[in-house]
Amino acid sequence: MASVRFYYDVVCPYSYMESHIVERAEDEGTVEVEWLPFELRPAPRPLLEVRGDHLRVDWTRNVYRRAQDLGIEIHLPRYQPRSTLPLAACLWAGEEGRLRAFKHALYEAFFCEGEDIAVDREIARAAARAGLDPDEAIAAAYSTERFAEIREIRAEAEAAGVRGVPTLRSEEGETHWGMGGLERLRAGLPLVPRTA
User: Which of 18, 26, 187, 191 is most deeply packed, by most CB within 10 A?
Assistant: First the structure.
């Protein structure tokens, strides 16, 4: 069985879509996955404009088409928040053995319901949906230890060539940025790293 690292962000539509593919392979028992948070726009990097040209063009040309091909419901988010807090809570959910359910609740709230998943109310709601304690989720979201862990994961990832998400990293240390990495790995094709 292949073992991979999968870097994701809960505000990235491509991470959301690729997660479905990776989870399916995980369920089939063909791959063992280490899920690692990678914040796309950590402070002080500027956030994308909610209705800016970049988002509208990318979603129209790529996101909606790919989601339709995969049969995944997705809508252009009404917010573009920093993902530090929900990703810190994801680390905690992983420790509790409920990462998948928690991520799904966050993705659904953000991409299907149009909620701001970086606010306490939505983190707590995602925790409840995932069968986790909402108060513990909020505490985890503000944990300085988890913030440090997110920074450490990012530093290690960048040193290994990770520049964005979704990125799959093979046991051999090869990286694939974007969608289709797992399919390429399983087909024995070379992975395609992000170069800039």
Answer: 18
Residues 6+ apart with CB under 8 A from 186: 2, 25, 30, 31
pLDDT attached to residue 196: 62
Pick the CATH number of 2-187 from 3.40.50.150, 3.30.450.30, 3.40.50.10490, 3.40.30.10: 3.40.30.10
pLDDT above 90: residue 52: no
Residue type, 95: E
Instruction: Kindly report, residue by residue over 131-177, the tens digit of the pLDDT.
Output: 999 999 999 999 999 999 999 999 999 999 999 999 999 999 999 99
* 44: preceding bond cis by omega (within 30 degrees): yes
Minimal CA–CA distance to 183: which of 22, 57, 73? 22
Whole-prediction pTM:
0.96
Query: Domain residues of the chain, as ranges?
Result: 2-187
Contacts of 39 (CB under 8 A, 6+ apart): 9, 82, 83, 84, 87, 150, 154
Q: Is residue 193 scored above 80 in pLDDT?
A: yes
